[in-house]
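Retry 2 of 3 after timeout on previous attempt. Resubmitting structure tokens to design endpoint.
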């Protein structure tokens, strides 16, 4: 994994936080990290349920 990260230093992360509103909907956050260590949020979305079809 260390060799792979040296070749492709960018990183994509998807995470969810549950119960963020009165409807208890999960909030998904898509974050990228550049090779220089800086990160930035590139997307956020709420979903009604956590099925694969709904998330994609």
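Retry 2 succeeded. Sequence:
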């Amino acid at each position: 994994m260390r060799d792979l990260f040296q070749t492709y230093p960018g990183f994509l992360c998807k995470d969810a936080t549950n119960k963020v509103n009165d409807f208890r909907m999960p909030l998904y956050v898509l974050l990228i990290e550049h090779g220089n260590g800086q990160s930035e949020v590139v997307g956020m979305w709420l979903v009604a349920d956590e099925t694969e079809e709904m998330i994609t």
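Attempt log closed. The longest helix spans residues 2-7.
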